[in-house]
Amino acid sequence: MKLMPTCNEAVEMMSKSMDMELTTVERVGLKLHAFLCIHCKKYWDQILMVRDAVRQAVEKQESEESTCSLKPLPEQRKAELKALINNSLST
Ligand SMILES: [Zn+2]
Q1: Residue 72's Cα: distance from chain center in Å?
Q2: 64 with 74: CB under 8 angstroms?
Q3: Average pLDDT over the chain, rounded to an integer
Q4: Which of 56, 65, 72, 84 has the smallest number of CB atoms closer than 10 Å to its CB?
Q5: Is residue 1 part of a domain?
Q6: Which domain holds residue 63?
Q7: CA of 12 to the centre of ligand 1 (A)
Q8: Any long-range contacts for 9-16 (C-beta under 8 Å, 24+ apart)?
């Protein structure tokens, strides 16, 4: 297998890398190609930017969701829990 992919192959690998891990050979070839080919480098940068933006949006959403589930307990529930703990401590 040749090390240096063509532009078409490089673009194919880029879109593949969005969905799955590339093999080491593919990654090296892609890096090499992006290093030598300014057009693919630009395209690759854009793909990475979009991927990062998507990832950040997902992470942000997830952290917001977990914050929601961490809303403080209602006072009554707190008192119940306290009574429960006191009971189990005293027995
Ligand atoms: Zn290229």
Answers
A1: 29
A2: no
A3: 86
A4: 72
A5: no
A6: 7-90
A7: 11
A8: 9/33, 10/34, 10/37, 10/40, 10/44, 11/40, 11/43, 14/40, 14/43, 14/44, 14/47, 15/47
